[in-house]
Design a protein that fits this description.
The chain has one domain (about 5-105, about 115-330). It is about 75% helix and about 0% strand. Helix 6 packs across helix 12, helix 8 (about 220-230) packs across helix 10 and helix 8 (about 220-230) runs antiparallel to helix 12 (about 305-330). The protein is built from 12 helices and no strands.
Length: about 325
């Protein structure tokens, strides 16, 4: 999640918005946009799996530290969700309804916006999306791990390919955000200052889950908290922990956050279909910092435009915290 990818995210979303505002999206058949989303999402998840399979640190870490990393990933993602739910309850958001005094009635979709789906249709779509995610990531990982170093210069091209595919996909997401602006605006006005509270509640849950996982495995609290404070940003977290503590802890931090990203990809469709629309934003919290880029397309496909807008802001805030939070936690 380097600077170039952040620029790609912002430029691509802005391009998608411009495509709708200028009416350019209505010059092509309406069926092109969902097809664009499905194809580019499949290719993106395949490339992410390939990148993980071709990364030596991941292959070695899976063999040596896979169990510990899985505990950290599950605890941080799960507790982020739990803390978010608890915060919503404490702040007066009634389960299945809106905060007291706030209406979450969503206006009719704008022309060109996707038609809302009933529960049965949404659950079938969630199952299809989960199967797509599992097969794409697994196929990419298996191929990358099996091929190893025999792919020559392909490994150097995977990361740019991920960024390019992400950009193409985010153009379509930006277009959907603009098409459903009335619903996005309603969500923002309804949540108000809570839009800052929800990411912070999820971050607190991540740290609590990491602390508990570390206690369970007898690891130092400072290292455990630093792993949780990576919020899924595995590349930077792995580098920081390796530099400040050592290669073994760095590998654990790297893999734990890789698995957290993977858990988000696999869990988002189910959460998006099971949660009430007024609580659908909870599906974002397990993703941590990744929700502004790599997991944003899956969340957008699994939920709705307001949730996608929140996911971007949520990931942006946590991304800004990671470079300062991880070293601070390691110094405790």
């Amino acid at each position: 999640m380097g600077g170039s990818r952040i620029v790609t995210v912002i430029v691509s979303l802005a391009t998608g918005v411009a495509v709708h505002v200028t009416g350019a999206d209505r010059r092509v058949p309406a069926a092109i946009w969902p097809l664009w989303m499905r194809v580019t999402l499949s290719l993106l998840l395949l490339a992410i799996g390939l990148h993980m399979g071709m990364t030596p640190e991941v292959a070695r870490s899976v063999a040596l530290l896979g169990g510990q990393a899985a505990v950290f990933a599950t605890a941080t993602a799960g507790m982020a969700f739990v803390f978010g739910y608890a915060a919503a309850t404490l702040l007066g958001a009634v389960a299945g309804g809106a905060p007291v005094g706030v209406s979450l009635e969503v206006p009719a979709p704008s022309p060109g916006a996707p038609v809302p789906r009933d529960r049965g249709t949404a659950r079938r779509a969630a199952l299809r999306l989960t199967l797509l995610a599992v097969t794409s990531v697994a196929a990419g990982f298996a191929f990358g791990a099996a091929a190893g170093g025999r792919l020559g210069g392909l490994g150097a091209r995977v990361e740019p390919a991920i960024t390019a595919l992400l950009g193409l996909l985010l153009v379509a997401i930006g277009r959907d955000l603009a098409a459903e602006w009335s619903a996005v605006r309603t969500f923002i006005l309804a949540q108000g200052w809570r839009l800052l509270v929800w990411p912070l509640a999820g971050a607190a849950g991540s740290l609590a889950g990491a602390w508990a996982a570390g206690r369970l495995m007898g690891l130092p609290p400072s290292l455990s908290l630093a792993i949780g404070g990576g919020f899924g940003w595995y590349s930077l977290t792995g580098v920081l922990v390796t530099h400040l503590v050592g290669p073994g802890p760095g590998a654990l931090a790297f893999l734990a956050n890789v698995l957290r990203e993977t858990i988000t990809v696999l869990a988002a469709p189910a959460l998006g279909s099971l949660l009430h629309p007024s609580r659908r934003w909870l599906a974002v919290l397990p993703g941590g910092a990744t929700t502004m880029d790599t997991t944003l397309p899956v969340l957008a496909a699994a939920t709705d435009a307001p949730t996608a807008a929140f996911a971007f802001a949520h990931g942006l805030l946590l991304t800004a915290l990671v470079p300062f939070l991880v070293p601070l936690l390691l110094s405790l």
